[in-house]
Amino acid sequence: MTASATDDRDAGLAAQYEAYPYPERNPQDETRRLFIGSPSHLREVDYWVFGAQRPRSKPMRVLVAGCGTGDGAIMLATQLARADRPAEVVCLDRSTKALSIAQARAETRKLDNIRFVEGSLNELDALELGLFDYIDCCGVLHHLPNPAAALQTLERHLTPGGGMGLMVYAPFGRTGVYMLQDALEKLAPLTQSPEERLDVARRVMRTLPATAWLRQNGNFGDHLSGGDAGLYDLLLNPRDRAYTITDFLALLDQAGLEPAALMEPARYDPTLFLPDPRLRARLATLPWQEQAAIAEDLAGNMATHVAYVVRKHAGLTKPDPLDPNAVPIMREIPGAELAKQMTPDNMLPFPFGTLVVPIPLPPQARGILPLIDGERTVGELTAILATRGVNAEKFRHVWQESFHILERLNRVLLRSPA
């Protein structure tokens, strides 16, 4: 691609987010709801990036690199404020309009732990913002002219022991998108204004053939119901690259990074939908990277890859869930609610996007889950279960199995120390 073509795409991208900041948000809605997701959920960051070892009282510097209208930044800043955690969340974006919406959302919530910087991720060094314990870069890298260079820049701005939360698009779950993008770029070239291009896209969508692959794809609720900004971002984005999990891992490696966790870890385990013993035996001989690639190939519905990453060979030690002083904590859904979702045969129907997989749990998990309140230790859970006829050895076995399963589903984690 020539430099002029790259510049045209970059100009088109800048024009897009001024005309249609994404995602489309009304700051007044902050009075009634908080968007929750991954990456950058505080409990996830504490666990997957810092191994539940970083004291909650230790100040945290956060960079949201490409904050858009602010979903991730507002979520994390709100969670930090609610937990009375000392922190500064720096929101960086080059779109004046998108930043103004994010700032208005923060003002509605009266957040004083967040600040906004207008600028490009590609010019991060020149902004002299310092180092950060955690960096969020969600839905940004795949729109940049040189994602590898940008990721390397972010890596240089991590403190020792720091990490990132990343999201990039994945190809198979976006089946149909790139076909339509190609057609629309011919019908509505980048030289047209964003308003003209959007008008063309609307007209095409009104009579899109029933055989178009996009019609068969159920992964785009937010984009297709997210107003003009959602439609534009899905079908008219001037630069939009998707990564298989293999490509994504190679990108991380190039930047000196490795995944602490893919979200959810179990999503990348093909044994969940390959019960055949011979197939499982074959899978067991393969490296985890190949297993993850097989899971993506077979599932076919991964539209994004979300990961928490750290520097290669960082030596992050996962906490011991059997430690009597460890404190299990529900990621979001209360334990009692999760227990209610279990079927009579002790299966937990779990949605990996549009794919629902039954996950077997020990029967005793139904009684343990409601006891997890983010305060009780594993030792205290052991004592409670002893009064119900589950001795310490039995509890240890059941808890180890339950935690292993629910951790990989990103539903039960461990709390960081005070």
UniProtKB/TrEMBL annotation:
Listed Basic and acidic residues bias regions: 1-11
SUPFAM superfamilies: S-adenosyl-L-methionine-dependent methyltransferases
CDD domains: AdoMet_MTases (cd02440)
Region (Disordered): 1-26
Ranges of residues in domain Methyltransferase: 58-164
Keywords assigned by UniProt, alphabetized: Methyltransferase, S-adenosyl-L-methionine, Transferase
One example GO MF annotation: methyltransferase activity
GO biological process, one term: methylation
InterPro entries: Methyltranfer_dom, SAM-dependent_MTases_sf
Entries under Pfam families matching the protein: Methyltransf_31 (PF13847)
UniProt entry tagged with the keyword Transferase: yes
Matches recorded under PANTHER family: METHYLTRANSFERASE, UBIQUINONE BIOSYNTHESIS O-METHYLTRANSFERASE, MITOCHONDRIAL
Name assigned to this protein: Methyltransferase
Organism: Acetobacter okinawensis
